[in-house]
Amino acid sequence: MKAFWRVVRYAYPYKGTVILSVLANLFATIFSLASIGLVIPVLRIIFDNAEAPEAAPVFDGDIMAYGNEFLTYQIGIRLQETGQQAALFYVCILVVIAFFLKNVFRYLAQFLIAPMRNGITRDIRLDLHRKILDLPVGFFTEQRKGDVMSRMTSDLKEIEWGVLATVGMIFREPIIIISSLAILVWMSPQLTLFVFILLPFVSLLITRIGKSLKRASTKAQESMGDILSLTEETVGGLKVIKAFTAEEQKANLFKRVSNNYFNLMNKVLRRNDLASPISEILGTGVMAVIIWYGGGLVLAENSFTAEKFIAYLLLFYQIIPPSKTLSQASYQIQRGNASAERVLELLDAENPIKDGPDAKDYKEFKSAIEFENVSFSYQEKKVLSGINLKVEKGKTIALVGQSGGGKTTLTNLVPRFYDIDSGSLKIDGEDIKKIKLQDLRSHLGIVTQETLLFNESVAYNIALGKPDATKEEIIEAAKIANAHEFIDRLPEGYDTNIGDAGGKLSGGQKQRLSIARAVLKNPPILILDEATSALDTESEKLVQDALFRLMKNRTSLVIAHRLSTIQHADEIVVINDGQIAERGSHQDLLDRQGIYHKLVEMQSFA
Question: From start to end of 507-561, where are the E strands?
């Protein structure tokens, strides 16, 4: 239940509405009990023809006794003045008024609690999104995207309906139960003690079923994560699936996962549906035992009269609906608790890549980036080993080599998408771990091998790193990236929405927007990971010229498979199996007749 109480803590900012809701529930309970309290004097005076008190009662500290005597006195007066029929009518009017006020305050309590319930869901969702933004890139290479999406959608919805829906009950039902029990103890301590003896057995049975529900719910939510992951893979890989005629294979896999979720949800719903019948059976059983035991007290004791016993049963019946609701709530809480644990697991995920307590401001790149004996591994797999490389300010360093050699990983260490295992990585002689992340990344412009665009306008995507850019600055950046002409032809120009992941654009157009984004940010350090890979020949030449102008007097790390694009780099570094195999100028490396020479020959032959 720790997860449940952590979710409930989100209610603290809404404590004002919670207090008002509790007060409204309290008044609703008072009027509900008052309507039942009218039964005793009615039965005693009207049907037993008992005499009404001659004088108004005096309050002696016992509020329940005083209330009973006051009602008896008031009804007795009406009885003497107007007769039995009119007195009965008077009592009925009071009952209607009491029930009307009860429901008014009950609705008011629900009205007040709604912003808290929705507010908690919103606050958790905001925290989840913020957490996703804060977690390092490496976290999501180890997690399925579908599972993360499931925690933000179906798990959060389960919390809303399984946990937060019960919050209102927690602030309402206990008030009714405690108030009713207090009156029951006052009416007959002996009979109420007997009731308390029965309750632990009822609670034990409900708890056992609730725990089994939680286990089934956890498995069901994990299965929903599998479904979302498969759906995302299917949508993203539809071309490949169709090209390899794998529709039936993927359909069978999805069917298997969906059937697993189907079976798990059947278990969840069947256990959940047990709440109502079990509560009703237990409530009826307890009521029958009370009638048997209480009836014996009426027959054996003069102090516990028949009208008191009937009122006692009515009051006890008042406890059954909220008790039933709470038992159902316990099932919902167990079900929602499973989702809460999954959500909190994501919120509690540690981010090893963050500013240290001694992190410093970093305002200007001055001299060099230095890799000193740097090693890095993905989990158990060694990717980089013993990298020693100095990238001086204003120089262009090209990284070449076979795919999977570690080139992209090397550039990912500079913005601290990952932290190195050993060695040191410095900028201007300062370990990058001692520089504030925001300051470090503000000095970097990155064009990735995979073009990453957002479902927004063209202007939004270009100005991502500089949201306050003017329209003129955006257009100038687009021109440098050879993107202005095709943007100008779009239906709404720079305000055109480019669709999910830029789906409305061609590969070359998406890559040029990505380059324009880096151009606009105008950083001192550029990281270009196959920046021209998706461009046609004409666009590649124009963009390459623009990039050469952009890289002039800047520090650039360029990954290139098309070796013709990096021949003028100040230094070419050949990465092979996570190590620097060769380094030098284009001509020097050709003269050595080594790995670089073979790569050039292979491309020339191709």
Answer: 525-529, 555-559
Amino acid at the residue 407: K
Beta bridge partners of 572: 398, 584
Contact 556, 396 (CB under 8 A): yes
pLDDT tens sequence across 507-533: 778 888 888 888 888 888 888 887 666
Residue linked to tokens 């305000």 = 495
pTM for this predicted structure? 0.70
Burial (CB < 10 A; 0-12, 13-18, 19+), residue 243, is exposed
What's the rounded Cα separation, in Å, for the pair 517 and 507? 16
The residue assigned the tokens 């009521």 is 287
**Are 453 and 341 in the same domain?**
no
Distance CA 317, CA 41 (A): 19
Question: How many Å apart are CA 324 and CA 202, to the nearest integer?
Answer: 11
Cα separation, 510 vs 461, in Å, equals: 10
Domain assignment present for 369: no
Q: Which CATH number covers residue 118?
A: 1.20.1560.10
Alpha carbon distances (Å) from 137 to 134, 141, 379, 408: 9, 7, 14, 13
Written as six digits, the tokens of 24 are 């409204």
Residue 374 three-state SS? strand
Does 263 map to a domain? yes
Q: Is 383 inside a domain boundary?
A: no
State how far the alpha carbon of 73 is from the alpha carbons of 59, 110, 388, in Å.
13, 36, 98
Contact assessment for residue 113 and residue 20, using Cβ atoms and an 8 Å cutoff: no
| Total residue count of the chain as it appears in this document | 606
Q: Are residues 223 and 98 in the same domain?
A: yes
Point out the domain boundary residue: 326, 347, 368.
347
The pLDDT tens digits of the residues spanning 309-355 come to 777 777 777 776 676 666 666 666 766 777 788 888 888 888 888 88
Task: Find the helix or strand (DSSP H, E) in which 381 lies.
Answer: strand 381-392
3-state SS of 316-361 is HHHHHHHHHHHHHHHHHHHHHHHHHHHHHHHHCCCCCCCCCCCCEC
Beta strand pairing status for 571-576 and 396-400?
parallel
d(CA 326, CA 169): 7
> How many CB atoms lie under 10 A from the CB of residue 398?
23
What is the strand order of the sheet 571-576 is part of? 444-447, 525-529, 555-559, 396-400, 571-576, 579-584
Domain interval for residue 584 = 396-403+443-605
